Amino acid sequence: MGGPDRTYDLNIHPPTTSYFLLAAAGIEKGASQPGHEEAGVVSLSQLYEIAQVKIEDPGFKLRGKGLEDVVRSLLGSARSLGLRVVPRLTVEECTTFRQRRADELAAQAAALKEAEAAK
């Protein structure tokens, strides 16, 4: 809290791991059924870029984690969000995946609306 001179210590931490992963994948939310559907795709180089930021996070610093450990942690987080991690990712592959995913989500929404109407 504030001291007698009304000063404060404010610690600002980097955003959460899921924020970085979803931003890298260009999506707003992860898969509703991770392991059964893919919500997005990220490259290994994107994971390393995120790891460079996250390694400075106090949570990783306190545990003495190295870059490889942080990347492994990010791999697990990516899988739990329904993100596929690929060695390389081209703009065309990314665009194709996003279009296919948008079509899948639209089909799911239409099926849900149709089921609601049938009730």
TrEMBL record:
Pfam family of the protein (one): Ribosomal_L11
Superkingdom of this protein's organism: Eukaryota
Keywords carried by this UniProt record: Ribonucleoprotein, Ribosomal protein
GO cellular component: mitochondrial large ribosomal subunit
InterPro entries in alphabetical order: Ribosomal_uL11 (IPR000911), Ribosomal_uL11_C (IPR020783), Ribosomal_uL11_C_sf (IPR036769)
A Gene Ontology BP annotation from the UniProt entry: translation
Residues of the Large ribosomal subunit protein uL11 C-terminal domain: 14-85
One annotated GO molecular function: structural constituent of ribosome
Family statement drawn from the similarity comment of this UniProt entry: Belongs to the universal ribosomal protein uL11 family.
Subunit note: Component of the mitochondrial ribosome large subunit (39S) which comprises a 16S rRNA and about 50 distinct proteins.
PANTHER family named in the record: 60S RIBOSOMAL PROTEIN L12, LARGE RIBOSOMAL SUBUNIT PROTEIN UL11M
Protein name according to UniProt: Large ribosomal subunit protein uL11m
